[in-house]
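Predict the 3D structure for this chain.
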Amino acid sequence: MKALIITPFFPYAAVHHAGGKYVYEIIKGLSRRHDIYLFSRIEPHELRFVNEMEAFCKDIKLYTFKTPHKSNPLKTLFVIASYLILAIKANRIIRTGDFDIVQVEHTETGLLIKKAKDALMILDAHDAISKPAERRYLGSQLGIQRFISWLKWQIIKKVEVYVAKKFDIIFTKSRIDKDILLKLAPNLKINISPHPAEIPKNSFNIIREEDIILFAGAMHRDVNQDAVIYFYKNVLPLVRKDMPDIKFYVVGNIPPENIRELAVKDRNVIVTGYVESLTPFYQKATLFISPILIGGGIIAKNIEAMAHGLPVVTTSIGNEGIEAIPERDIFIADTPDEFSKKIILLLKDKDMRTKIGKAGKRFVIKQFNLKQIIEKIDRVWCQSFN
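Done. Predicted structure below.
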């Protein structure tokens, strides 16, 4: 079949964010059976990866966009405008391309997308975008701020339903996100397509360093910034009372000034910024922490760490889309005291670290198998089109 994939994040093997990596994997896998056409927004520094994707795509069309580094309201409007421009340009391609399937990545991309006359329209909703908005509202202070948060939540819910109803089929990353969308619009046709995990070999044969806590994620995202600040201010001091020499690594692209300052004032905090590969850090770390306070979909950083055999301590929110078994595959902690106690337990007990790490990796291999996910998407494509 002839399939057009529209995405706001250019996909390639070394892309640093989970959404782009997911799209790369499905294009690579589905290109063995289908003719894939790609239309993507792309950052200027990513143009060097276009040749890599030409091996899997019949044609690639691009919209070049440079994301502003500084976070402010003007930047937000600039980014929103880029999504709208992407959709307008995509509509022209859809009209003239005679595609069997049009798959749109991320709900936000679909706002101005128009339905093709004869193509099967699929929305790959990487997150239920109303869920984080609801949590921001519930966690906001009373007064005008709470009203504004409530208003944003209501608007986002309406946008989510409006976009979803345009599409014949929707993919969500988790059962929880599927249930959220069905509650908003019961007649949607939804399939679950989890984020696939790349399973490294021999992750238990490496010699890890002691007393190193790792957090990894795209640091321009506010949910990751909030997680790091929460951990540094509320959890790490409790750990250091017992283990004062702990090192805390924050690995991820475009850390803002308040995150970089942590490393300036604290010699045991290392903020790396962009790295070519996370693998050396997964191999170096003693354990992985993910104190996610607001989230949606699957927290891909957690399954990636688990795939590398790292024991993970996260929140209930961080485990929602994953649904790993607490105390067997993963440690769950929702207060600073719980979080610090579980970290200290893992840091002091190597056998426990190995046990949780192995169980977590087995769980990810079973639940987030790339081959099975590609086969499921292919099956949905073929059955729905026929």
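The CA atoms of residues 8 and 41 lie 5 Å apart.
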